[in-house]
Amino acid sequence: MTASPEHQPVVELRNINKVFDTGIRTQVLFDINLKIYPGEFVAIVGSSGSGKTTLLNIIGLLDTPTDGELLLHGENVADMSEDERALLRRDMLGFIFQFHYLLPEFDVLENALMPCRLKGKTYEDQNRDRMVELLKHVGLSDRIHYRPSQLSGGQQQRVAILRALANDPRLILADEPTGNLDTKSGNTVFSLMRDLNASTGKAFVMVTHDREFAKQADRIIELVDGRVKDEATSEEGSPQT
Ligand SMILES: Nc1ncnc2c1ncn2[C@@H]1O[C@H](COP(=O)(O)OP(=O)(O)O)[C@@H](O)[C@H]1O
Ligand SMILES: [Mg+2]
Known about the structure:
Elements: E1 11-22, E2 24-36, E3 41-45, H1 52-59, E4 67-72, E5 75-76, H2 82-92, E6 93-96, H3 108-112, H4 114-119, H5 121-137, H6 153-165, E7 171-175, H7 183-200, E8 203-207, H8 211-215, E9 219-224, E10 227-233
Parallel strand pairs: 3-8, 3-9, 6-7, 7-8
Antiparallel strand pairs: 1-2, 1-4, 4-5, 9-10
Bound molecules: adenosine-5'-diphosphate and magnesium ion.
Residues 20, 22, 26, 28, 46, 48-54 line the site of adenosine-5'-diphosphate (ADP).
């Protein structure tokens, strides 16, 4: 049975476990079941070491689960070759990390277009005007030809967010994107992600330490020692339990 596209999760995790075995065997994730739907903005919270990054890396095909199933848009990732997974990662997923990882020798526009460049020069050219518009939209129109080192931390992170959107992915994964920023820049970056979620309908999964940001997500997933504790909606006025 196949769900209609709009009701099909962008990503689904079924009984995902993750064990690291580097001398000492450590189980980091336990029986994670999770569905992320198109257009959702989901926050993952939990204390340091609870498995948030490991979970995000598995969703992002940057790491593999020890067992369990991962479906991206209904397709079981385990059935794919490494090349197919790499293509899926490139075309369906966007990544934002705590550190921006912009390339110092390229300017703002080139950095934001880097995922397009990796798909080919023609594709990069086709997307340049759209990216210039996006850069204007996020208040960086006068910084387009600056190098990353000439930007503030918040500006750098805004470029990294646009880079995550460059290939028109279905799902954006962000690992503590505001973790390295002061409060004001962090607020700007968070608002931008929320705006882009609303305006583009792309799903976002954001790991954050910040409860104030998490409360503004559609859904909060809390990890405690590698297990999903409970799911709370963040609706205004919902009873506190
Ligand atoms: N590559 C690895 N090898 C061994 N242990 C790891 C590895 N990556 C993460 N861990 C362990 O997994 C646990 C969860 O890590 P992580 O997912 O980074 O947590 P969080 O992002 O919530 O702080 C930690 O105890 C960490 O030491
Ligand atoms: Mg982490």
